[in-house]
């Protein structure tokens, strides 16, 4: 031992133990913090489904029955219930995620969802539906400091099964949607198209709303619910909101027989495709092209040659 080493103070066993304990505590803190910060479906108590179901039910009341006050009461009860289950240790951050969804539902409910191809109508839809996307993103990223909402456009190469499903979608849409729109008469829920400009705006609008559907119902509502519940529960909850919105938009009569399985399948393939947003948007917009054509044919019967099998239904 040199003279300098002899004069340097040596750490005692107590100091070394304290240092080790501090290091261990520091190492454990992030893990513990992360565990408490991030929801885990396995840790969510079944009772926590109740407040989430109330939020979904509020959409039925707001958009299906057009009852604002009861709808807001149910929506508020759902958010409050989520906060209570969090405090009771039955869920983690469920109240926060339900609040983000509720904010969007409230904004959407402020306007009538009836299609309007005027420039004013296009502007109104753009602002309201845009806010419904922006608000929960801002809430989760700036207030919650989380990146729980994402829009994963980049996906892997589509499999043969995915391409096969796309082909099935095209055929099914062509056979089923004209029969629905023309046979039930629900095409009348969309406005008459007076000129080429209105037809063009209508085409853009139908596809824009289709894109918005996937951004909101799948990437926001479904994704947030998946943080707390098993796949089938989250899917049923998002589909309830999705179908309620489509009902007010015009998909009425026996439309839910189509929109319910469609909403459920969209959630399922989003999950199975490893959250490939491009794929689910492609599927949705293929449907929407046929939706657009069916409504145009309904308003212009001379174009029925586009759907010869549906000609007897148009009368």
UniProtKB/TrEMBL annotation:
Residues 1-10 have a biased composition (Polar residues). Residues 11-37 have a biased composition (Low complexity). GO terms for biological process: CAAX-box protein maturation. Keywords: Membrane, Transmembrane, Transmembrane helix. Pfam families: Rce1-like. This is CAAX prenyl protease 2/Lysostaphin resistance protein A-like domain-containing protein. Residues 199-290 form the CAAX prenyl protease 2/Lysostaphin resistance protein A-like domain. It comes from the Bacteria. Residues 1-40 are annotated as: Disordered. The chain crosses the membrane at residues 49-82, 94-111, 123-144, 165-190, 202-222, 229-247, 253-270, 277-298.
């Amino acid at each position: 031992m040199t003279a300098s080493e002899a004069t340097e103070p040596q750490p005692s066993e107590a100091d070394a133990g304290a240092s080790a304990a501090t290091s261990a505590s520091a190492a454990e803190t992030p893990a513990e913090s992360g565990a408490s910060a991030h929801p885990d479906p396995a840790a969510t108590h079944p009772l926590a489904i109740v407040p989430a179901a109330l939020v979904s039910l509020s959409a039925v009341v707001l958009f299906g029955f057009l009852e604002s006050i009861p709808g807001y009461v149910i929506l508020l009860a759902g958010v409050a219930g989520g906060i209570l289950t969090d405090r009771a240790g039955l869920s983690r951050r469920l109240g926060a995620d339900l609040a983000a969804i509720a904010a969007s539902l409230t904004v959407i409910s402020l306007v009538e969802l009836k299609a309007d191809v005027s420039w004013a109508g296009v502007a109104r839809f753009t602002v309201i539906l845009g806010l419904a996307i922006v608000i929960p993103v801002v809430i989760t990223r700036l207030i919650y400091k989380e990146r729980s909402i994402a829009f994963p456009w980049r996906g892997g190469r589509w499999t043969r099964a995915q391409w096969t499903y796309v082909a099935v979608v095209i055929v099914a849409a062509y056979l089923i949607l004209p029969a629905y729109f023309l046979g039930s008469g629900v095409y009348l829920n969309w406005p008459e198209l007076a000129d080429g400009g209105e037809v063009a705006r209508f085409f853009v609008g139908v596809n824009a709303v289709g894109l918005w559907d996937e951004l909101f119902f799948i990437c926001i509502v479904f994704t947030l619910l998946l943080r707390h519940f098993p796949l089938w529960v989250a899917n049923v909850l998002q589909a309830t909101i999705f179908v309620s919105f489509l009902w007010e938009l015009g998909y009425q009569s026996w439309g839910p027989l189509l929109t319910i399985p469609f909403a459920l399948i969209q959630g399922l393939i989003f999950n199975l495709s490893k959250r490939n947003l491009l794929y689910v948007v492609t599927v949705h917009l293929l449907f929407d092209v046929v939706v657009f054509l069916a409504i145009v044919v309904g308003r212009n019967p001379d174009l029925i040659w586009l759907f010869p099998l549906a000609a007897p239904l148009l009368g």
